[in-house]
Amino acid sequence: MTVLKTSLRNFFAHKGRMALSAVAVLLSVAFVCGTLVFTDTMNTTFDKLFQATASDVTVSAKGSSDTGETTSRTGRPPVMPASVLAEVRGTEGVRAAEGAVFSTSVTVVDADKDKLSPSSGAPTIVGNWTDNDARTMKITSGAAPKGPDQVMVDADTAGKHHLGLGDEIGVITAVGTHHARVSGIAAFTVTNPGAAIFYLDTKTAQRTLVGRTGVYTNVNVTAAEGVTDEQLKKNVAAALGGGYKVQTAKEVADANQKGIESFLNVMKYGMLGFAGIAFLVGIFLIINTFSMLVAQRTREIGLMRAIGSSRSQVNRSVLVEALLLGLAGSVLGVGAGVGIAVGLMKLMGAMGMHLSTDDLTVAWTTPVIGLVLGVVVTVLAAYLPARRAGKVSPMAALRDAGAPADARAGIVRAVLGLVLTGAGGASLYVAAGADQAKEGSAWLGLGVVLTLIGLVVIGPLLVGGLVRVLSAVLLRAFGPIGRMAERNALRNPRRTGATGAALMIGLALVACLSVVGSSMVASATDQLDKTVGTDFIIQSDKGEVITPQAVKAVKDTPGLERVTEYKLVDASLTTPDGRTSKNQMINAADPTYAQDLRTKTVAGTLADAYKRDSMSVPEGFAKKHGIEPGSTVEVAFRDGATAKLTVRAITSDDAVIDKGAMYASIATVARYVPADRMPLDLLVFAGAKDGQEAAAYKALKSALHDYPQYTVRDQTDYKEELQNQVGQLLNMVYGLLALAIIVAVLGVVNTLALSVVERTREIGLMRAIGLSRRQLRRMIRLESVVIALFGALLGLGLGMGWGATAQKLLALEGLNVLEIPWGTIAGVFVGSAFVGLFAALVPAFRAGRMNVLNAIATD
Predict the structure, then answer these.
(1) C-beta of residue 337 within 8 angstroms of C-beta of residue 370
(2) Is 99 within the bounds of a domain?
(3) Locate the ABC3 transporter permease C-terminal domain: which residues (predicted)?
């Protein structure tokens, strides 16, 4: 009980300083709990949706996925004959059955040719209105479609794009473009996760999506009373025989949920990883806080030991304070985490994915995980200061107001730090020289961990040299005030090292990712300049196939010298060594593709691969299967016949674009794959006539005005798009790393605040001999800037080393250019100085307000 009272007294005596540490715990716990609540809520939302929309049993066409339609490369969904519906209706245990046809391989536009698609990345779905849809949607205005000129739209899409009854829309599919007017608007009775849904009558949907009537993509079956879904599935499967996919409502819902979970897990574990970084940074803050508090209470600890307190009691007293800190920060963090989850839901709502707070899911494990993490991390971080406090002897503590230094521990720390840093550097060196990316990645990971830990351990030894260099450059101009700030930063190297290390972690990751991102962009740009010979690339940003109408519009564009179509065809290959390679991809293109992409070959000529019944294979595949120019490969096309193709060229593996591709001409593939099963183009390349590039570019954009799902890019556009994509990804990562940097800033604030308290008498004496408040505040700000820049130097240097090593591994994949983003690095370094200034505002202000006489009288 005495230990608890002492701990409570000390905790509340330093509540301001404890609050800063508690904020670090709060932020880290809040990010973890917010991530868990948000992803659990997403799972709940989709689970309810999938359960509500699935019929008792669903019959799908051959080739469809477990979640329903499979977007095929033909642009049309897999279908089954309408006779299946009659067979299902006559099956025992069936109360009702209805045919449905839908597709996600569509683009819907308004009268101005603007896309009516979700901004959240959710699909655009066009299908027929069925009784199954009526279970989860309610017509709020107008009526369901009853003819080819009518369409019904969901209320969310109508509201977002300002659609009303009578407005004209166009549905663009592989079949053509169908125009209709809005006849009705239907609202979801369950949460809409963001899809845009359009309903046509059944015959119109069949003609528009498939090109003919009398077919369905699936059949929705309702069980008769007393018949289970499993029994109904058996009856339907027996009646239909093979060739169809038959699933219960639970199986469909589980398949859909599994598909969305893969996306959610990437987001979940990515965000938890950044929360872990914030926890790691928070550890330094807590260690520093308790180390300084213990040092300031050394005489008090000595008195406790003198009157009978044991080492374990002193140790427990500090750990109880940490426990209280962890509990307070964790409890508040759990509550803040729920708030973060709600904020993320609102953000997703602004992007078009509607998540209702009615589905807010807080599993019992979430607060438990938050509390356990927060408390355990805090107590572990406080263990070393607590152990140090317990080792202080009573007489030494009564003689000295500060904790005694442990010279032996310093030597051990130096040796351990040097060994870890050296081992980490060696691992990075091995990674940079690896012959395979997989092997090198393991060494890179080990090197990152060892060098990070090594620099954290050895940091105090580096303080003397780096702080003096920084001071010579930055502080000497401030005269005596600058020199005093330098001495303050050098006074306790361990404290300065730990504070700088907190910043180092976040900035090292920023620097590493900046180097990797810049190198990827520079390498890809270099590859574009060296290998791409086309003027224009036409593609869908969502990876959708290009409709025949759009291809015709490209070919009819004036000013073009050539147009190259490019398709992907699935096949199985049987090589001369007798082995069969399944699920291979043949890149089918027009012969002019050899001009559009200057692919290096190690044997043969790529142009010959586009001759009749010819192909190329990549270098690695050829070596593995003993293939040489002239070898024959048996190619079984998934949607066609089997061909025997002669290998005319072997392409180099030293490539980025189309690395590992196998080429054949479209004419060769067309001999073995029926026209109705031939994949549509994934890309179209166009070359302008000499001197007409600008006019052709403008003409192409005009020609594709009616097809807004496709984008025309020249090489400059392509490079800019690549930079934007990498930049957006990096900005998102930087935003998540900002959490760790905020925690690090709190650490600097806490260190300075405690340092000011520790030097109260010293500050009073300096003020008494003439130091002004302004000079005092400047001294503290300069000290903070030096500490921040010390951490920035370590972090940026370490991160650039990691990034350069990672680029060596990327070079194995063809990304050969190392690009150091010096502008970003310099910006981060300068930004760190401002971080130091910001962190010093409150401690400097409090020091300036200190009463001189009271400060001198402080013991």
Answers:
(1) yes
(2) yes
(3) 274-394, 736-851
